[in-house]
Design goal:
By secondary structure, the protein is of the alpha+beta class. About 35% of the residues lie in helices and about 25% in strands.
Length: about 210
């Protein structure tokens, strides 16, 4: 093979290898970007969706927005959504937190499963005005069942939906603390102090026979 042809082939191979390397690197960057976007979307959806579900169950919020996060089959089979555990209470606030474990989600994935740790550390509320204390076990709301769930999501027309939640591990729930009641204040009683002038006048009053 002529030296010039060998030199040309080496140059072409060098150029082709560099183009191939840059193409693979660019493809990996684009793939990583879409995978990160999918994970962030799923993470936000799961956190906001589970928090909305908890508020609907505990605080009685509007459940219409749940259809944007959960599938219809999930909502129909969720027993907690139709329960009346917290209906006897007036809930002011809940301390909610959810942690979503990392999961690699590729753009061609149509389903994904990930672990979610859901906790409600505090529920602030009291018995509602019309609730009968005799039929309610406690004046404070019952604690939420904290747990680790295996959550499955399915992609519907580029939108993720939660289709199932399976409890993997039950976590200890905090003991509900009673709502503090105002302590009655006692009014100090006035003390009558005798006047020195009155005492001296009584001492000077002498009865003559």
């Amino acid at each position: 093979m002529p030296p010039k042809l060998t030199l040309v082939l080496r140059f072409l191979w060098y150029l082709f290898s560099r183009i191939l390397i840059w193409a693979v690197a660019a493809a990996l960057v684009v793939l990583s970007f879409f995978a990160a976007m999918d994970y962030m979307n799923v993470q936000i959806l799961v956190k906001d969706g589970l928090q909305l579900r908890a508020k609907v169950i505990i605080q009685g919020d509007d459940p219409t927005a749940l259809s944007k996060v959960f599938s219809r089959n999930f909502l129909e089979q969720d027993a907690l959504l139709s329960s009346n555990v917290y209906r006897s209470y007036s809930i002011k606030n809940i301390d909610y937190s959810a942690k979503v474990d990392f999961q690699l989600i590729m753009p061609w994935h149509n389903a994904v499963e990930l672990n979610v740790t859901e906790e409600i550390k505090r529920i602030d509320g009291t018995l509602a005005g019309g609730a009968e204390k005799s039929s309610t076990p406690s004046e404070t709301p019952p604690p939420w069942q904290n747990a680790v769930y295996r959550v499955r999501l399915v992609r519907y027309e580029d939108n993720w939906r939660i289709v199932s939640m399976t409890q993997v591990e039950a976590l200890p729930s905090p003991t509900p603390s009673p709502t503090p009641k105002p302590t009655p204040t006692t009014t100090p009683r006035a003390t009558i102090v005798p006047s020195p002038e009155l005492d001296s006048a009584e001492d000077m009053d002498v009865i003559e026979d």
